[in-house]
Amino acid sequence: KKFMIIDGLPVAIEGEKNILDVIRKAGIDLPTLCYYSALSTYGACRMCVVEGKNGDIMASCSTPPRSGMEIKTNTPRLQKYRKMILELMLSDHCRECTTCEKNFDCKLQELAQRFGLKDVRFDQYSIDDTRDDSSPAIMRNPNKCIICGDCVRMCSEIQNVGAIDFAYRGSKMEVTTAFNMPISETNCVNCGQCAAICPTGAITIKNDLQPLWNDLHDNDTIVVAQIAPAVRVALGDEFGIPRGTNVMGKIVSALRRMGFDEVYDTATGADLTVIEEANELIGRLEKGENLPLFTSCCPAWFRYAEINHPELMDNVSSCKSPMEMFGSVLKERAKLNEKGKKPKKTKVVAIMPCTAKKYEIHREEFQYDGEPTIAHSITTIELANMIREAGLRFEDILPEAVDMPFGIASGAGVIFGVTGGVTEAVIRYVMGDEARDHLADISFTGVRGFEGLKEVKVPYKDRELSIAIVSGLKNAEKLIQAIQAGEVQYDFVEVMACEGGCIAGAGQPFVIGRAKPERSEGMYQADRMSNVKLSAENPVTDGLYANLLAGDKAHHLLHYK
Ligand code: HC1
Ligand code: SF4
Q1: What is the pTM for the complete model shown?
Q2: Are 372 and 362 within 8 A, CB to CB?
Q3: b/e per residue, 248-276, with b = 16+ CB within 10 A?
Q4: Whose Cα sits closest to atom 1 in ligand 2?
Q5: Does residue 188 have its Cβ closer than 6 Å to ligand 2?
């Protein structure tokens, strides 16, 4: 076996790509601001420096481990060095922590505390008020950037977008868009993953809470909430509840206490999506046209396809996302109910794990009577902030059920929140009555798990359906290239922009590489516990198709084209 010596103790080397991973395995939390194992190593921040036997100083993230190597992680020189790096960063950093969106969640702030920094010896420089708030999803404040490049690598290496990059040199170096354009005018798809990985407040998620509070406090507005599948297994992280715990019932009662008039589950909308999308697939299979059918529910993927693959748009489903389908149903019902009464305004609020949903609600296709169908889309983290602001002790809140008449969702609708979930739900639908006895078999077809690309084959009539599931836009791009080169052929392709699906959306707490197994287990457990497993057996959707969605209303309200 190979060993290296860390602070005098032998530690085995077991395939780690750098000594930082060996050090962390030994239980030492070496600080870094720019190292994520899923991204390429940049070695910019130098916080992870260690000292070799001969006094040589090296960045542990970019040094491969060698057998017999001796290093120290905490010497007087290293302490001095780390403090100096932090001071230099802070001298070029806007330090208005109390009003920063990332206060208490900032790695630079955390390290300044951890290393006992009480003063910065250098004059503050290059602070100005250039900000970019052009995007509906993210905010950029270059004054808080520490040039770690995490966002740049995330945007290009995982999402294949490259909307942001380094510009200029030396002390003038910054992360910006091409020609310094507002980010909304670039090819950014609003996935928010740059904000999720940013260690400071340089890129943050747009805060949309004040207009929502205004509506909640307005007696003439009926505020209706819908909660996305993935939110329920992540919000608990913000309140010290064990990871992956399903806190749906607590969310419902918290929303009521904060003034929401009606509360529903977006998974009910997902049941409508399954029915509409599966029928679209069946129709295309019969005609043999526009295959594979690509899913359309992820707005960052939809935007990516529009910008980079206009030739594919006939293959992308015409279905609105579950959020927009349900929003249209809720607005239509409100309009019917309001007839002949003193009109109150009904506003639908979506609580989502996603930042791109903030962009989706402003798209022209998703208007109802000339206004956005969804008035506000807030993230899981924003919901946590609302709960804190309202002074609710979330840990102690007793769970409640969602409202009728739409308060039933199938397990198939709930698992939309994890990669492969849409596919699993659609397979259950196309298999019809047979699916009920084969739920476990379907779950073992390869739909579950966190691989970036999953391939599934299921029997359908006298043939086989060939399905691909991708998450992460780089993985989607690779798949599209293979399809277009004729190397692979599919009938159905599920795409989610965030690796792992919505459970790892940028609006969730702790998204980067963490909590995915617990959250996906939370989703599958909700499915196992649900009375209704198949979207086609949801009595709520049955009722809707018989009444509110009767005739051509279904297409009109549930499809964007
Ligand atoms: Fe998703 Fe969807 S699953 S896109 O990931 O289709 O955001 O959770 O709400 O609309 O249902 C997100 C999650 C969500 C939609 C559904
Ligand atoms: Fe890139 Fe997504 Fe950030 Fe836009 S939101 S800059 S696409 S990582």
Answers
A1: 0.95
A2: yes
A3: bebbbbbbbebebbbbbbbbbbbbbbbbb
A4: 155
A5: yes
Quote the CA–CA distance of 323 and 361 in Å, as a whole number.
9
Nearest ligand to residue 504 Cα: 1
Inter-CA distances, 328 with 228, 274, 301, Å? 15, 16, 21
Encoded tokens for 322? 């579950």
List of residues 6+ apart from 321 with CB closer than 8 A: 269, 273, 296, 297, 298, 299, 360
- pLDDT of 496 over the 70 cut: yes
- What residue's CA is closest to ligand 2, atom 2? 191
Token digits for 363? 């798209």
Residues in the chain: 561
Tokens of residue 170, six digits: 């030396």
316, 548 in Cβ contact below 8 A? no
Band the pLDDT of 40: cuts 50, 70, 90: confident
Task: Tell me what pLDDT residue 39 has.
Answer: 85
Q: Would you say the CB of residue 192 lies under 6 angstroms from ligand 2?
A: yes
Q: How far is the CA of 270 from the centre of ligand 1 (A)?
A: 8
| Beta-sheet pairing, 138-140 with 203-205 | antiparallel
Token couple for 327: 């929003």
Q: For residue 462, what is the DSSP state?
A: T
CA distance 397 to 236: 12
pLDDT, tens digit, 9 for 90 and up, residues 373-404: 999 999 999 999 999 999 999 999 999 999 99
Cis bond before residue 182 (omega within 30° of 0):
no
Decide whether any atom of ligand 1 lies within 6 Å of the 327 Cβ: no
135: confidence class by pLDDT, cuts 50, 70, 90: very high
Q: Decide: 283 and 277 in contact? Cβ < 8 Å.
A: no
Q: Rounded to whole angstroms, how far apart are CA atoms 173 and 95? A: 19
The ligand with the least distance to the CA atom of 507 is 1
Contact 208, 376 (CB under 8 A): yes
For 528, the 3-state DSSP assignment is: helix
Ligand 2 atom at shortest distance from the alpha carbon of 158: 8
Cβ atoms of residues 409 and 232 within 8 Å: no
193 lines ligand 2 (CB under 6 A): yes
Please state the ipTM of this predicted complex. Answer: 0.95
Q: Peptide bond before 517: cis, by omega within 30 degrees of 0?
A: no
* Helix ranges (DSSP H) in 217-265: 248-257
Q: CA separation (Å) from 375 to 14, 357, 361, 555?
A: 52, 11, 8, 22
**Cβ–Cβ contacts within 10 Å for residue 340, how many?**
6
Q: What span, in angstroms and rounded, lies between the C-alpha atoms of 540 and 403?
A: 12
Residue 49 pLDDT = 96
Cβ neighbour number for residue 10 with a 10 Å cutoff? 12
**Which one is catalytic: 357, 358, 454, 516?**
357
DSSP state of 57: E
Separation of alpha carbons 278 and 186, rounded Å: 34
162 alpha carbon to ligand 2 midpoint, in Å? Answer: 8
Give the DSSP letter string of 77-120. Answer: HHHHHHHHHHHHHHHTS---GGG-TTTTS-HHHHHHHHTT----
- Dist CA 528 CA 423 (whole Å): 17
- Contact, 319 vs 548, CB < 8 A? no
